[in-house]
Amino acid sequence: MDLGIFAKTFEGPTVGGVFDAVRSLDLRVAQFNMSCVGGPSMPAAIPDEQARAIGTAAAERGLSLAAVSGTFNMIHPDPSVRERGLRRLDVLAGACDALGTDVVTLCTGTRDPDDKWRRHPDNDTDAAWRDLRESMERALEVAEAHDVTLAVEPEHANVVDTARKGARLIEEMGSDRLKIVFDPANLFETAAPDERRRRVEEGLERLGEHVVLAHAKDRRADGTFCPAGRGVLDYDHYLEQLRAAPTDPPLVLHGLTEDEVPDVLSFLRTRLGRD
C-alpha cells in the first residue's frame, strides 16, 4: 500500500516547491489540485503549457499523481451551476494526459446552494437522485472522451452518503469508468465504536472492488474532522480491512496542516509496519 498526500497541504510558491515538499517526506504519490498553481480547483481553462509543466515537474521528481481533484456540486439546485461544473470538468479531464494522471475525483453534491459539503434534507429526495444521475451520465461522457476514470467519494453531507448508495450509483450507471474514493471518516459524524467498525467493513464489502483511492483522516468524538490517528476511528481495523480489499489503492493523507504531517505520517507508517 503506497502512502501519499494531498499536494495542496503544502504552500508553494511554485508547483515544483510543492512537489519537493512531498518528496522530502519520502512520499512518491500525491493527489493534485489545480489550486496548487494559484487558481481555482476547477479552472475555466488550463493552457497546454501549464498542464505539461505540472506533469513534467512531477515526473522529474519521481512523483506519481494518483488523481486530480475535480469536485463540483453535481446536484446544485441551480441547473446553470451544474452546467458550469460539467464544462470545467471537461477542461480538467482534457488536461489529465499532460498532467500525468487518469483519475479525476468527484463529490456527488448537495441541495445546499452555498456549500457543497453541507447536508440538506432534500438530498434524500427522488429528484436529487435523478439530477445526480443526469449529471453523472454527462460526466461519464466527458470521461469517455478524454480516457479518464471518475472516482466519487461517499460523503456524509452529500447525496451519496453511504456505501450502499455508492454501490447503487455504480450499478445504475453501468460504466467501468466510475470508481470510488474510500474515506471511512466520511461515512459518519458521530457513532459508537462498533458502529464505526461496521460501516468500514460494510463500506469495503460493498465498494472494495471499485476503490481506486483511499483517504486517511479522522473524526473527533464531537463529529468534527481531525488528522488521522487523532480521533475516534480505529485505524488498525481500517487498515486491516483496506489491505483485505480486492484492489490495492494508495492511501492519501489529508485534512491536516503542513506542521502536522510528520507526526501523522509517522503514525500511519507505524500502523503499516514501516517505522
List the uncertain runs: none
Question: Helix share of residues?
Answer: 40-55%
| Tally of helical runs | 8
The end-to-end distance, rounded to whole angstroms, is 14 Å
What is the secondary structure topology, with strand pairs?
Elements: E1 3-6, H1 15-23, E2 29-32, H2 48-60, E3 64-69, H3 79-99, E4 103-106, H4 126-146, E5 149-152, H5 163-173, E6 178-182, H6 193-207, E7 211-216, E8 218-219, E9 225-226, H7 235-243, E10 251-253, H8 261-271
Parallel strand pairs: 1-2, 1-10, 2-3, 3-4, 4-5, 5-6, 6-7, 7-10
Antiparallel strand pairs: 8-9
Helix pairs in contact: 2-3, 3-4, 5-6, 6-7
Tag the structure with descriptive keywords:
single chain, 275 residues, alpha/beta, 8-stranded parallel β-barrel
What is this entry, summarized?
This protein is of the alpha/beta class. Helices cover 40% and strands 15% of the residues.
Description:
- The strands form 2 sheets. The chain has an 8-stranded parallel barrel, surrounded by 6 helices.
- The protein is built from 8 helices and 10 strands.
- 44% of the residues are buried.
- The protein is globular.
- The protein has 275 residues and is α/β, with parallel strands linked by helices.
- The longest helix is centred in the first third of the chain and has 21 residues, at 79-99.
- Helix 5 packs parallel to helix 6 (193-207).
